Amino acid sequence: METFKRHRRLRSSDYMRDLVRENHLSLDDLIYPMFVKEEGQTEEITSMPGIYQYTLPDFAKELDEVVALGIKAIILFGIPAHKDEEGTGAYNDEGIIQQATRLVKKNHPELLVVADTCMCEYTSHGHCGVIKHQDVDNDASLKLLAQTAVSQAKAGADIIAPSNAMDGFVLTIREALNEAGFSEVPIMSYAVKYASSFYGPFREAADSTPKFGNRKTYQMDPANSREAMRELVSDIEEGADMFIIKPSMAFLDVVNEAKHYTNAPIVCYNVSGEYSMVKAAAQNGWIDEKRVIEETLVGMKRAGADLIITYFAKDVANMIHGGQQ
Ligand code: PBG
């Protein structure tokens, strides 16, 4: 009689390993972030190879490719022609995101549009709301955020994803959507959003670096996980339908813990800095890019993510279709 366990029995061949694999990557679970700009030319984001700020006509072409690859959902970020103190571009019915959303719904009605509901791309100071006494004013910002969400829903957004990290943003947006006749539009809340250095490349991409200070009075301290559960619980109570945890790679314990608090879908945001690190190492030939992408994303599934917002969505699609990356 053997006295030890033979774990290798279930690792003996590709088919055997496939048979016992516990987690899988599927295009069904991925949301692809895209940047759309109101004026100027389409440009690649220096720190995010393969990711572009698109003009509307180029965005339309890119959408055809995204849909052909089998991607089913995108999240949109806008780069407006003009910014101001009150971020009016965010809630203007003719704003860049509203135009882009209408374009998606016209060309590819089935493609799900997630609207990132925030103001940092639209404010001249780069903060996520309106400023009073050198800080973001919570309740004044909520009003504008609700207007933004309604304007995005009117343009055809399928999911509203508030990300400005103000207290009460889910409840305020839910009430405003209901009142405007959008009670069927779900809210994917950025419930747990850390004040992270991993957003650096995104701020280049979205031109949204704060002109003074930082976001630490509204985004969370990366050292905390019990605080994350408090944030999650209040968004559950306020009626959010799905919950984002962001960033991902350094926060998978938080993703796992969140599963004990809700049965609703948990979304990992695999953020810009996480993308840039992999791309940079791959460009240097230091890692096997495809395998690192797979390991990173399946790790998020293993931790408990139901969905993943990732700049790698096209890479994954190409990997699944066995095509070129
Ligand atoms: C808007 C927003 C940010 C990201 C998503 N929505 C930037 C921020 O909070 O500074 C970051 C996404 C990424 O880094 O990929 N507030």
TrEMBL record:
<feature type="binding site">
    <location>
        <position position="272"/>
    </location>
    <ligand>
        <name>5-aminolevulinate 2</name>
    </ligand>
</feature>
<feature type="active site" description="Schiff-base intermediate with substrate">
    <location>
        <position position="246"/>
    </location>
</feature>
<feature type="binding site">
    <location>
        <position position="128"/>
    </location>
    <ligand>
        <name>Zn(2+)</name>
    </ligand>
</feature>
<feature type="binding site">
    <location>
        <position position="120"/>
    </location>
    <ligand>
        <name>Zn(2+)</name>
    </ligand>
</feature>
<feature type="binding site">
    <location>
        <position position="231"/>
    </location>
    <ligand>
        <name>Mg(2+)</name>
    </ligand>
</feature>
<keyword id="KW-0456">Lyase</keyword>
<comment type="pathway">
    <text>Porphyrin-containing compound metabolism; protoporphyrin-IX biosynthesis; coproporphyrinogen-III from 5-aminolevulinate: step 1/4.</text>
</comment>
<keyword id="KW-0862">Zinc</keyword>
<protein>
    <recommendedName>
        <fullName>Delta-aminolevulinic acid dehydratase</fullName>
        <ecNumber>4.2.1.24</ecNumber>
    </recommendedName>
</protein>
<dbReference type="GO" id="GO:0008270">
    <property type="term" value="F:zinc ion binding"/>
</dbReference>
<dbReference type="Pfam" id="PF00490">
    <property type="entry name" value="ALAD"/>
</dbReference>
<keyword id="KW-0460">Magnesium</keyword>
<dbReference type="InterPro" id="IPR001731">
    <property type="entry name" value="ALAD"/>
</dbReference>
<feature type="binding site">
    <location>
        <position position="215"/>
    </location>
    <ligand>
        <name>5-aminolevulinate 1</name>
    </ligand>
</feature>
<comment type="similarity">
    <text>Belongs to the ALAD family.</text>
</comment>
<comment type="subunit">
    <text>Homooctamer.</text>
</comment>
<keyword id="KW-0627">Porphyrin biosynthesis</keyword>
<feature type="binding site">
    <location>
        <position position="118"/>
    </location>
    <ligand>
        <name>Zn(2+)</name>
    </ligand>
</feature>
<feature type="binding site">
    <location>
        <position position="311"/>
    </location>
    <ligand>
        <name>5-aminolevulinate 2</name>
    </ligand>
</feature>
<dbReference type="GO" id="GO:0006782">
    <property type="term" value="P:protoporphyrinogen IX biosynthetic process"/>
</dbReference>
<feature type="binding site">
    <location>
        <position position="203"/>
    </location>
    <ligand>
        <name>5-aminolevulinate 1</name>
    </ligand>
</feature>
<keyword id="KW-0479">Metal-binding</keyword>
<keyword id="KW-0350">Heme biosynthesis</keyword>
<comment type="function">
    <text>Catalyzes an early step in the biosynthesis of tetrapyrroles. Binds two molecules of 5-aminolevulinate per subunit, each at a distinct site, and catalyzes their condensation to form porphobilinogen.</text>
</comment>
<feature type="active site" description="Schiff-base intermediate with substrate">
    <location>
        <position position="193"/>
    </location>
</feature>
<dbReference type="InterPro" id="IPR013785">
    <property type="entry name" value="Aldolase_TIM"/>
</dbReference>
<dbReference type="GO" id="GO:0005829">
    <property type="term" value="C:cytosol"/>
</dbReference>
<dbReference type="GO" id="GO:0004655">
    <property type="term" value="F:porphobilinogen synthase activity"/>
</dbReference>
